[in-house]
Each structure stands twice: as C-alpha cells, then as structure tokens.
Write a structure and sequence with these properties.
Layout lengths: L6 E5 L4 H12 L3 E6 L2 H8 L5 E5 L2 H16 L4 E4 L14 H28 L3 E6 L12 H20 L5 E8 L5 H14 L3 H9 L10 H13 L6 E4 L3 E2 L2
Parallel strand pairs: 1-2, 1-4, 2-3, 4-5, 5-6, 6-7
Antiparallel strand pairs: 7-8
Helix pairs in contact: 1-8, 3-4, 4-5
Bound molecules: NADP nicotinamide-adenine-dinucleotide phosphate (NAP).
Length: 249
Amino acid sequence: MIATSLRCLVTGAGRGIGRGIAHDLISAGHQVVLTARTESELLESAAGAENAYVITADVTTNATEIVRKATELLGGLDVLVLNAGEGISSKFEKTSDELWNSQIALNLTAPFQMMRAALPAMKAQEFGRIVVVASSAGKIGAPYIAAYTAAKHGVLGLVRSVAAENPDCGVTVNAVCPGYVDTPMTQRSVANVVARTGASEESVIAALVAHEPNRRLLTVQEVSNAVLRLINGNSNGTAVDLPERESNA
Ligand SMILES: NC(=O)c1ccc[n+]([C@@H]2O[C@H](COP(=O)([O-])OP(=O)(O)OC[C@H]3O[C@@H](n4cnc5c(N)ncnc54)[C@H](OP(=O)(O)O)[C@@H]3O)[C@@H](O)[C@H]2O)c1
C-alpha cells in the first residue's frame, strides 16, 4: 500500500509540466521539493505551501547534490520526477558540438545521474517511484531536432534498462511520452517559427498538432495525471504515450 504522504523531488518545477506535477503532488498532501534554476518561478510554483521546499540549481552541474539536498530536507526520498528538459531545434548539418552536448547533458545525463543517486536508498527502503518526462520524440524521429530526439530516445533506453535491472524491489522506473503540450517551451518554439517565417501563431500551432491524434496541444493537467497514475501504480519499465494508448514498448 502506498503511503499517504510521500517525499517527492520534481525537477523543472518552475513552470510548465513540472509546475503542474508539483502542484498536484502538493495538493495531494505529499512533501515536495521543487527544483530549477529560476528561484522566482519556483517560489510561484510552491505558492507558500507548507509542504513545499525549493532548491535553486542547474541539473546539468548539480544533479547528485540536488538529490542529496532534497533527501536531507525531506528525511528520505520516495518519488523522483525527472522533468527538467528543453528541446533546441537546429538543422542537423548545423548542429554544433556545443548544442549536441548541452541537449544530451540536460535531457539524458542529468536524469541518469539523479536516478543513480536516488536508487540505492529507494531500494534499501523497498519503495520508490521514478518517473521521467520523456517525449514522443523519444519514440519517433522528426526534422530539425536531432540532438533532443537522440537524448529522449536515450532516456527511454535508460528507463527500460534500470527497470529491467531492478525488478521486484519496490522501486518502479517509468516514463511518459507526450506530444506537444501547452507550456512555455512550446510557446517559445511557436514564437521562434512566427518570427522566422511571418506565419500566424494559429497556423504554426495547427501545423505542430496536424499529426497528433486529437489535433490539439495537450494540457499540463493531462501529463500530470499520467505521471500521478504511475506514482500511484505498480507498472515498471513502461513508456506511456500521450495522448492515447499505453505501451510497454
Ligand atoms: N512542451 C512540450 O510540448 C513537451 C512535449 C513532450 C515532452 N516535453 C518535456 O517535458 C519537460 C518539461 O517541458 P515544459 O514544456 O514544461 O518546459 P518549460 O515550460 O520550458 O519548463 C522547463 C522547466 O525545466 C527547467 N530547466 C530547464 N533547464 C534546466 C536546467 N539546466 N537545470 C534545472 N532546471 C532546468 C526550467 O527552469 P529554469 O529554466 O529556471 O531552470 C523549467 O522549470 C521537458 O523534459 C520536455 O522535454 C515537453
């Protein structure tokens, strides 16, 4: 049976999907550490809740230290939501080593380091829930986003491998794979295309969602619901597609 008050760490909790997940965990009465680089956004996300704590840090340089500090603040760690991420687009031939390395560092290496830091104590207490916010870009290729796509494919491999290596120990490791979500990250991408092409915002969004099953942006709430289902359930090694089907692929 899952405890009524879980000790949770949510990365990228300053805005967008991470803010929504942190908000839902706080509202459910769990103890939540929110982390990102922008303190003002974290404080807005925490909204003065007594069961919320803030760590301002960069996951690409402080991954292990963030897990250590959160564990200390909470007196242990039950839930790790690895959501911090960003997709920077670039034509493949123009993708610099710097862009490649930064996309891998943020979307793949930081989740690896945080999982590695959190897992031993979760196994020792025979309970843990690790959920990665990956992307549909972790399962299919798309133009102008090779580094992000490679990192998100990699993080799904990481999830499946860590889950396979740690069966039946009370710890589950899963991912959610959303299509386009209505968040500041998507708003930034749309604004870039509008600035570059002069197209209207509506037409850019319509083009983004043209191949999505429901032809609209997902809401943060839909993604958060899927993450909370994984935290409350027992699935292990799954990569949940949003919208639509759940798959074990
Ligand atoms: N939006 C979509 O359509 C979509 C679709 C599929 C998957 N996703 C994934 O969902 C996750 C959240 O995306 P979002 O749309 O909510 O993005 P967002 O609105 O830009 O929020 C991203 C969060 O991550 C934090 N972050 C970024 N770089 C960081 C770093 N180096 N260290 C610590 N924190 C960092 C940001 O805060 P600071 O900048 O203050 O650090 C912010 O709180 C990402 O992993 C993204 O790949 C998004």
